[in-house]
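Input set for joint prediction.
Command: fold jointly, output tokens.
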Amino acid sequence: MMDAVASPAESEQDLTEIAADAAGEHAVGRPTVYVYEAPVRICHWVNAFSILILMVTGYLIGTPLPSVEGEASANFVMGYIRFAHFAAGQVLAVFFLARILWAFAGNHHSRQIFYLPVHRRQFWKEVLHEIRWYAFLERQPKMYVGHNPLAQTAMFTGFTLFVTFMIVTGFALYSEGAGIDSWQHKLFGWVFAIWPNSQDVHTWHHLGMWALVVFVMVHVYAAVREDIMSRQSIISSMISGERQFRD
Amino acid sequence: MGAATETFYSVIRWQGITRRSFHKFCSLTATSLGLGPLAASRIANALETKPRVPVIWMHGLECTCCSESFIRSAHPLVKDAVLSMISLDYDDTIMAAAGHQAEAILEETRAKHKGQYILAVEGNPPLNEGGMFCIDGGKPFVEKLKMMAEDAMAIIAWGACASWGCVQAAKPNPTQATPIDKVITNKPIIKVPGCPPIAEVMTGVVTFITTFGKLPELDRQGRPKMFYSQRIHDKCYRRPHFDAGQFVEEWDDEAARKGYCLYKMGCKGPTTYNACSTVRWNGGVSFPIQSGHGCIGCSEDGFWDKGSFYDRLTNIKQFGIEKNADQIGMAAAGAVGAAVAAHAAVTAVKRLASKREDADHNS
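tokens >
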């Protein structure tokens, strides 16, 4: 499925799984594991798309486009940008919530990004191993069915924590416009007890965006790199749900 | 300004208002507040029997701009607020008494109206060096404040100084100027921030307390909801230009002449809670944005420490150098991007090298 190049190293014990096609090339049977269930994959791509929209529109709210010509009543540029931001934010919030709920219903991989087994020594040993692998100190990467421990750490901080922070501060900022009688203010107004001046909340929300930009860069790079280097499928796994190990 | 117990009714009778007019006033008030017909007599009864609320007005570390604003109130006229609605027993800036005579009034009010008077505080106490940066009547102001707060019914924190700290509390705050709610923690405190607060907001708060005998509803930050529940931005008459995406790009440009939104010029309207865009200033004549200048956010916490009044994005000083969120974010993203590219390059080289090695090994 991944690459059609037949591996010459396939040995006899796999014969049952090897069949030759018309051109005489060998199709190779590889061990696959079903890791990412459909709700996880749907949430992943909806959230990814929402975050992309939120970053672009959020940046344009902080640094608006050049002024448009004409009467104010004939234009709604900033209004549409803000609408897109708020809509994408609410979609992200709903799907993030759905993702949390699925962690209770889904397989154990679906829970991986919501906790760190910090009390386990083995976890830290394997984090260290992964750091050494990325520092080119290990020749062979370990293979994992779900996230490797370093990836789990990155997902937990870079995604779960940061996105939670963005959703909370985002709804708090939204409540400023929705009014102090709104459910958004009742639920998230406590943010202004931490930062009484909402200018600070804006600033932190803005910094949070950049933190997510950095996360996305590392996330995409690591996914592409591991797909190539660690002899297991990464990117296609988030589409098919199956992790394939090639060796 | 005696400290005698007098009612609102007795004072307006002295001013020549008839009982008939008084009852008309009570009926109108009840109607305008949407209360039932019985409420009119209850209001009349309250105004006839409840003593006027004694107010002690104290000045800490401040510039008296709150008083300057207060005495310019048009609705109600400040003379009505000071002379008929409240019993302003003590205000060292505008009172006739001075020296020991003035200080005696404090003791008298405290003893006579225990738990009933309103303590209005303009400015704040500096706590450094035992409070020596603000001496009032031979004692540190903080002591006077604590003494008078002890028996007060409630405290009004006038202005940004009393509410948040304002300029004297700006970094590095050498005198350790401290807002009232950080010093007095056992009394209800109404924050009326602004530098200064709007005159009508000040008299409005005072009138509410004297008329209803209770404190107005406060928001999470302790500000009266009726004046501070919305941002300048929410009621700004230039808001349509914001939604349209029409901004002043630099001072005196064509957009400025057309009265476009001042968002890009650093207007703090979107983060400032105050009534300027509705009540306006100087009897409703204008307010900063109407006069072509952005809001500087003077009723917000720490507004002196958020960088330039003319920048949209706040400066962040925690990182050693003053940068805004975009500058920090772009630097971080650039650094990580470079690191990712370098890592990818090393990975490619290593992979090539190890492949060659494998090939050598296999052959």
